[in-house]
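Task: fold both queries, return C-alpha cells.
Query 1:
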Amino acid sequence: MVAVPRLVIAAPSSGAGKTTVAPGLMAAFAGRGLAVSPHKVGPDYIDPGYHALATGRPGRNLDAYMCGTELVAPLFAHGAAGCDLAVVEGVMGLYDGAAGEGELASTAQVAKVLKAPVVLVVDASSQSRSVAALVHGFASWDPQVRIGGVILNKVATDRHERLLREALEESGVPVLGVLRRAAAVATPSRHLGLVPVAERHTDAVEAVRAQAAQVRAGCDLEGLLALARSAPALAVEPWSAGAGAGPRRGPLWPLRYEVRRMTGVPSTPLTVVAALLVSAAVAVLSARRGGALHHVVVAAWPDLLPLPPAALAAGLLGALSYGHEFRYPVLQHALGAAPRRLGLLAAKLLVTAVLALLLGVAVIVVDLEALRLVYGGPLIPVPANWPGLCTAWAGLLVGCGWAGLLAAGVFRVTAAGVAAVLSVPVLVAPLVERVLTGAPARAATGLPARLREFVWARRPQETDHWLEGAVRVLAQPVAAALALSLAALLCAFLFPRLRRGAGG
C-alpha cells in the first residue's frame, strides 16, 4: 500500500496556466519544509526541468501511452517514495488523450489510476458567470474523476473575483485559489513547448520563485493540502529497475511500440498521400509523352527522376522512423535503452518493409486508375515478366525504406536518411555500373540452375525463373548499389554495439 497525499493539476485546455500553478504549488509547499514529488503527465521533458527547480527532486513522467496504463501507478509510487506530497501536472485539457484512443494517456485517466483529486485551473480572463457552467461540465463529464477544487487564473480585479466566486457557489466546487495577471510568472515558449531550463537557468529560477510567491499569496495552501490528504491509499507495489519494465515489455513490445509510433504521427499519412498524388501525376505525364514502357509509366519512374516518388516516400518514412527517436530525446528514455537495441531495429525494419510494400501496391493501383480515368481505353496488359518486375519493385521500395532507416540511425538525423536514399542512384549506382560493365573474368551463365540444384534439388524447373529474375535484379546498377549501401549502413549501425560488447 502506498499512502502519499497527491494532487493532479489540470485545466480545460492548454494555456490556462497549469505550468504557472503546478511549479508554484510545488515550490510553495517545498518552502514549507515538505518533501514534494513532482510528476508530469505525458512525455514532456521540458516541464520536469522546472519541477526540479521548484522541488529539488527530479521531475518524473507518467505516460500511459508509452509505458502502459498498468505502469502509471507503480512509477508514481517509485518516484513519490518517502515524500510528503506529490503534485502531478496534467497535459493539454483534462480529458484530452491520444488521438483516436479515447481517454488513453489523458490527465483524466492518470487521475483515475492514481485515485487523485483534481484541481482545475481555469483561465477566467474573459468570463464571469459562465465559469460555473464550464466547471460543472468538467466535474460531471466523468463521475470517476473527482474535481476537488478550482484555481481561477488571470483574474482582473476584486470585482471580477467576486463575480466568479458567486457563480461558482452554485457549482458546489470550492475555489482554492485566485491568481491575478502577473508578467513575472510568465515562461517563454516555442514550437516544442517551454524554453528549457538549461537555456535560461537564472531567469527560470526567478520565474519559479515568482510563481511560488504568487501561489502563496493567492491560494489556500491548507485547503489544497487537506484535499491532497483525502486521496486514498494505492494498492500497488512501487516500480523497481531491478524488476524490469513490467509485463508489457515482452518479445513483441518493440513491434507494438513501432506500429503505434508509425501510425500515431501525422508524417506517415501525409507522406503516403503525397506519394500517391505525385506518383499519379508523374504517371499521367509520362504516358502523355509516349514511347515509355508500360511498367515504367505505372511505376511513375521516367528517366528524369533518380527514383520514383514511391521509393523516395519509402525512404522518408524509414528515415523518420529513427529520426523521431533522436529528435525527441524523451523517447529514448521511454524505450528503456538507446534506440540501437537489436529488438527495436528488427521491429523498425519489419514495420518499414510492410509499410513500403503496402505503399507500392497502393501506388500501382492509384496510377492505373489515374491512367484509365485520364486516357480511357482498356487496362494496361500484364507483362510476361511480371514476377521479376514485382520482385524488383518490392525490393526497390523496401531497400529504400531500409536505407533511410539505417542512415538515420547511424547519423542520428532524418536528413541523413533521405540523403542516403538519394545517394544510391546519384552517387553509388554510377560507380557500380562501371564495375558491372567491365568484362567479367568468368561468366555466371547457368547460375540459377546450379543454385536450384544446391537448395531446391527436388523443386520443379519453374523456380529457375524466380532465381533468374532475382539474379537479374541484383545485376542492375541501382539494385546492386542499393544492396551495397544497405550492407554498409547495417555494418555502421551494428559496429558500435559489437565494439561495446567486445570491450565489456
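Query 1 returned. Query 2:
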Amino acid sequence: MRRRSGPSRQVVLVEADDRDLEGRGEPALPTPLTGEPGDVAPHPRRRWWPLLVAVALVLGLVATQAVLDARERAHLAEIRSLPGVLLPVDQSMHALWTDDATGSLTGAVDLGGGSVAVGALDDSGAQVVRGVELRTGAVLWEVPVAQPEAAALAMGWSPYCEETSTPGLLACTAYGTFAADPDDPSGQSAVPTERHLVVVDAHAHVVRAQHTLALEAFTTVTDNGYLAAEYADGTVTVTSHDLVSGTEQWRFDAPDEPLDDRYDNRAWVEVDGLSRLLVTGPRSTWVLSSDGTLLDTQGTLAGSGAYSRAGHARGDSGELYYLSDVNRTVVLRADGTPGEAFDDTTINLTVDDGSAPDLFFTAGYADGGMVVRAREISDGSIRWEAPMVGAGSGGVLVDGALHVTSLRTATAIDAATGEVRWSHELEGTATDGGIVTDGRVVLVVESTYERQSLVALSLADGTRQWQISVPTDDYLNVVAGHLCGTTFTEETVGGAVVSRQQTTVYGVTG
C-alpha cells in the first residue's frame, strides 16, 4: 500500500525554553551530538560554565598568592629595618673596595645616605675623622682631631668615634703626644702620653669641643653627655660630664683593692637599656642609676674579679650582664640585684627581631661537650640546651630561630624549644668571623685548606645558595647595611707587636 502524501508544510525551528524540556522538572542535560537526526545543540550558557569556574579558581589562586607575597614583602621589609641587617645580597656580591688607611669600620657611625664617619690616620700621621661613602670608599670630608705624629702612624693609633644623642655630633677619642714605650728595651716603639675626647660636628665638618681625659680612663657616651671611669690610688671614680662644655654633673667614688701585678687594675663603666650603670673595679662592682645614685645596696656583686666587663644580654631588653673573668656571667635583675653566676660566655646577637623576648643565649660546657643554652633573661636560669661543637660568639635571631655557627656546621635552633630547625654541614670549618643576614639568607665564613669563602645559606631551610671568595681571616660586620670585612695582620715595630688591619666593603652588582 502506498503512503499518501499530504501537502507540504513549512517548518519553523524555535529554541525551547528550559521549562518546556522534560516537563516542569529540572532542565534536561543536552545529549552529545552524534550527527544523527534529532540531536540537540547545548545551550550556550551551559557551554561556558566550566570555563568560568576554572577562571574563577585561577583568579582566586592569583589573589591569594598576591596576598601572601605582600605579607612576605612586608615581613622582609620589617626584618631589613632592624639594626645589623644587610641590604639585599645575591650571587653577584663582590669586593667593592679595599683600603688600609680608612681604619676599622667596626666602630663606624652611620650618617645616613650611604655614608659613615670613621677614625683614621692620614699619610702624615695625623689622626682624623672622615666621612666615607660606603659604596665607593670615597672620602667625602675630613676633620683633623690631633696633630701629626710619626709614632701614631707607625703604631696605628687611630681615633675611635661614638654616636651621641645629638644628631650629627660624634664623640671621638684621640691621642696626643707620644713617648718611648718603657716596656720596649729597644726604644723604637711608642705609646701615647695624652688622651682627649673630641666632639666633631659631622654636618658642619668642624670640631665643637675637646676635653682632656686621664690616660687610663674608660669613657662611654650617654644621653646626658659622657662618663669617665678611672682607678687610681685604691679608688674607683666615675664622673659624668656635659658633652660640649665638659662640666662635671656628678661624681661617684668607692674604694677597691687592687689585684696583683699580673692584672691590669682599671675601672670600667657600661650603660644598659634601662639607663643603669654598671661600674667595675679590679675586685668590686656597683650598680648606679643614670644620676649616679647607688642602686646595688650590697655595694659589690659577689664573684666580680679581673677583667670585669659589662654588656647587653639582648639589644633592647633593658637587662645587663657582666663578665667577671674570662667566662663568668651574671645577669642583673630589674632592681639591680644580681642573679646566680654561671660559667658561660654570652652569644652576641648581631640581629635581634625580638621574637624571643624573655631569653638570651650563651655557650658553655656540659658533660665534657660544648652546648648552646637559652637562659631566662630575668635571672639567667636555663630554659634549654643543645649540643654544639665549637659554637661561635655571634648569632642571628630571626623568626623565632637562633642561627649560629659551630666548628663545621651552621644551624638554626628554635629559640623557644631548642629543637633544631635545620643544620647545614660546611665544606670546611666555620671561622668565628661572624654570622650576618639580609632577611633571606645567612652569610658565614667557611675555611678550607685551599680557600676561604663567604657562603650564603637559605634562612628558611639552610640550603646553600651561592658563595664567593674572601681574604683570609676576615672578620665580618654590618655597617649601614653594607657587609664589611676586616683582615688583621701583625708586624713588629722595635720590640712591640703592632696590629694592622685592612678594610674591605662588599656589595652587589648594580
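Both queries returned. Flag for query 2: The helical segments are 44-80, 150-155.
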